[in-house]
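Researcher: I'd like a structural prediction for the single chain below. Treat it as a standalone chain; there are no partners to consider.
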Amino acid sequence: MTPIHDLTDELAPELAVELGLKPDEYERIVGILGRTPTKAELYMYSLMWSEHCSYKSSRKYLRLFPTSGPRVLQGPGENAGVISAGDGWAIAFKMESHNSPSAIEPYEGAATGIGGCARDIFAMGARPIALVGSMRFGTLDSAHQRWLFREATAGIDGYSRGLDVPVVAGEVYFEQAYEENCLINAMTIGVMREENLTRAQATGVGNKVVLIGAQTGREGVGGASVLASQEFSGDDDETPKTVVPAGNPEEGKRLIKTCLELLKRGLLVGLGDLGAAGLTSSASEMASRAGTGIEIDVSKVPQKEDEMQPFEIMVSETQERMLAVVEPERLDEVVAICKQGGLLATVVGKVTDTGNFVVYAGDEVHAEIPALSLAEDAPLYDPAMAKPAYLDELAAFDTSTLAHPTTTEALSETLLTLLKSTNICSRRWAYKQAASQAQTDDSIVVPLGNDAAVVRIDDNTNRALAVSSDCNGRYVYLNPYRGAQIALAEAARNVTCVGGEPAAVTDCLNFGSPEKPEVYWTFHAAVSGLADACTALDVPVVSGNVSFYNESAGVPIYPTPTIGLVGLLDSTDESCTMAFKNEGDVIILVGETADELGGSEYLSVVHETVAGEIPALDLELERDVQAVVRTLIRKDLLTSAHDCSEGGIAVALAESAIAGGLGCTVMLDDGLTPTATLFSETQSRIVVTCVADDVENVIEALADAQVPYSVIGEVGGDCVLIAGTATDTTSDTASNTLIDVPLSRGAAAWGDTLEQIMQEA
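Model: Treating it as a single chain, here is the predicted structure.
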């Protein structure tokens, strides 16, 4: 067969450049095909060989990640990663970016990010049970940033409600570095029985290829993959808003229910999601994984717009569509079940043994491409690297040269200022918008301020999963290697604090242009750090996403390798929360504080400074601290546990007090300056409480684990009272009082700030 000749030797290279292909990439395509490519072929290659789809600048270093382990059932390479949760249960999860579409149309960008991630999950045979949103914006003193935040949150809310899948956890940061490029990372978690694990493979020569779901339109033609593979100009008038597809969560819900029913009945050989690059990516990847060929007749694809061209149909990013492989004798049953579910199910092609991806439009052949060349043979690049010049200068910044508060009044006001910081204050406004209150009966811990969410796996088991999403982009900016490690350590620490044992990671690696040596050096350092930390903490990476070109007018975002971590609990009875529980409970600090204010929220908020050496991280100590805290939770010896992170121990104590409605009286005798004692962000620290009768057992366990600890105070009262070693205070030298904040003031500062800001016009 001969593909239609719709491009001349002169026009084809010009179109290739317009579509983002480099001249040598075009020549490589000509070499693969042995002829001038058609328009459809160029569109297909341009998307599949884009940075977003092919990872051509990152794949080399992604191989550093540990990806296997005793719990891993499916690692990278499929729609989602899958781990065993015990007793035959399995958890599928995946994190994806939808940054550029959300910067253009925040509602639909965030909504379709959630929808696409959910399709990745049920394509594996899992029922989606929980969603996580990780978002970053510029500072909220800008009306535009408030609009982005409001609309993106509403998009997550709208789609999650439509799917009837709750948002159980997440994070949101506000930094100047994200002013021009917001980040919207979505994570979905699903549950299944291990035997129901499905893979997106086009096996079985002669099997039918069936398109299930929405009619195909021109939405997002060349959209997600192109947007995510290029830098914004910064000119809003030039932004192609039409490339952002819209989602239909109600149809998405029907799609989930119907596809899971088809899988349950064993009617599908394979199932793949149509996301970025649409039919092209799904079909080529399913064929290449199976080592088969595939034929698609675009004239049979249900279309909602007139006169769509073959290339448009092949790269359309219309949402709520899945591609299934079905044995011919089961086709009628598949179509009937889809019809019953209110979904179209149309045979659009078949599986072949040629290894080629052939696109027909009736009798005309518009593409004939080796399937493997689309999915796997994109050129791999190893861009130049250069250490950013700013790193050494910022790391050398001496925080002691700043004028730090010393009096009780000034330190107390500093704590209130930090509690009001948009990076620390309650996310209640976002949670309320994002349907987290529409919890299913499976949910155990409501995530209003807890370190991580805990969700029962299924009504038929008491097993549960814990999930957290974390990354401090400021840390990674100041020290890419260690900052990425801290992102993982904090995610694992958060899961530990609710009783979960960290099991596996999905990630979303958000960076600027890989073509810039300093950005690529940062990417390499962050990936190396994350890989080393995953190995040290024995947490494999089972899925993920790379998002490059997050910059505008040449200015990149903070490097932001977002971590989505899933942990496991054998029983929901083993879960714990951060809230102080009882008057008289004893407060213990597991870990110890050092003078580490570099990169801290204190420096950023109080001194408007982003500089300094970020906290050190001893991965062996981190592992031991987390292990002993999990053991204490499982033995029911702790009444609360809370990670020390942004804002230091003063903020951690205040948050636990606010959550429990109980104050505390604490003595911090660490010999540091008041600001370091209170606001240092030293890693590997967890504030725990226990009843007085259990103190001896808790201390014995901590001593046996050989981790540093100190008994620092007691729960009770209506104030957060923190004393310290001798200070420069004048009015409180006798008591050495550092902090004296009424719980009501702390709660108002922490709880109301975001809602007040978002009420502004």
